[in-house]
From TrEMBL:
The active site is at E46. Belongs to the PhzF family. The lineage of its organism: Bacteria, Pseudomonadati, Nitrospinota/Tectimicrobiota group, Candidatus Tectimicrobiota. Keywords: Isomerase. InterPro entries: Phenazine_PhzF-like (IPR003719). This is PhzF family phenazine biosynthesis protein. PANTHER family: PHENAZINE BIOSYNTHESIS PROTEIN (PTHR13774), PHENAZINE BIOSYNTHESIS-LIKE DOMAIN-CONTAINING PROTEIN (PTHR13774:SF17). It comes from the Bacteria.
């Protein structure tokens, strides 16, 4: 008998937008090498593997190239699948045991709220290679070394965020998972906009990145003087997030829609 597989578009209520994740429901733990092969086969930015345990679910995330320590959209997709497929009752909290500790998800109407760690950036001098690779003039550069390590680069306008065209080969030479480019939003319904580039993890541009907002949330909350933000990730697919900063934690809100159900027989 095969394993249940789902493809879910996360941080969107519209099919073929947001960030697509594969979710594989395991009956027992599988080797990391096998999970990496499945993720390479799925060829999405992340494939999530869920395995039941007495106090929730073990959860691991793989890009086509590497295992990552924290992933927002594939966690959102996993919670969505557990409720939609009847593995959890609608009012139940989803608890995930991960490399980044215990993460939880709750339903709030049509939205799902993820409880994630806050990963605020620390100001650093902009590495020359980073500036050359992104081809932008930074207003601010910060770094966070937790959960994979990434740079946060603030630029002067939303237009710059939307039009940036990185040199991915050069960006890949930096010893970090990726780089966030962000600005205050000029689009009225949003507070901030961003894009995320992670060629070293095998994903040149991630369409919508929950974990990046663990860094963006504290940064923009302090800059704008507000605990709750509406964020837009301005990739070609695009995605919307509600971000609430609560001390050492960040609540990431998003919607999700299933676009494929199937069976893994390999």
């Amino acid at each position: 008998m095969g394993l249940q597989m789902f493809q879910v578009d996360a941080f969107t209520a519209t099919p073929f937008a947001g960030n697509s994740a594969a979710v594989c429901l395991l009956q027992e733990p599988r080797p990391a090498q096998w999970m990496q092969q499945v993720a390479r086969e799925m060829n999405l930015s992340e494939t999530a593997f869920l395995c039941p345990r007495a106090d929730g679910f073990a959860l691991r995330w793989f890009t086509p190239e590497v295992e990552v320590p924290l992933c927002g959209h594939a966690t959102l997709a996993s919670a969505h699948v557990l409720w939609e497929a009847g593995h959890l009752s609608p009012e139940a909290t989803a608890s995930f045991h991960t490399q980044s500790g215990v993460l939880t998800a709750t339903r709030q109407g049509a939205w799902i709220s993820l409880d994630f760690p806050a990963l605020p950036p620390v100001p650093v001098a902009a590495p020359d290679v980073l500036v050359q690779a992104l081809r932008v003039t930074p207003v601010y550069v910060g770094e966070n070394r937790d959960a994979g390590a990434r740079y946060l680069v603030e630029v002067a306008s939303e237009e710059i965020v939307r039009t940036v065209q990185p040199d991915f080969a050069l960006l890949k030479t930096l010893p970090i998972q990726g780089a966030i480019v962000t600005s205050r939003a000029s689009t009225p319904e949003f507070d901030c906009v961003s894009r995320y580039f992670a060629p070293r993890a095998g994903v040149n541009e991630d369409p919508v990145t929950g974990s990046a907002h663990c860094c963006l949330g504290p940064f923009w909350s302090q800059r704008l003087g507000q605990e709750t933000l509406m964020a837009y990730q301005a990739s070609a697919r695009g995605g919307v997030l509600r971000v609430q900063v609560r001390g050492p934690r960040v609540l990431l809100g998003g919607q999700a829609v299933t676009v494929l159900r199937g069976e893994l027989v390999g």
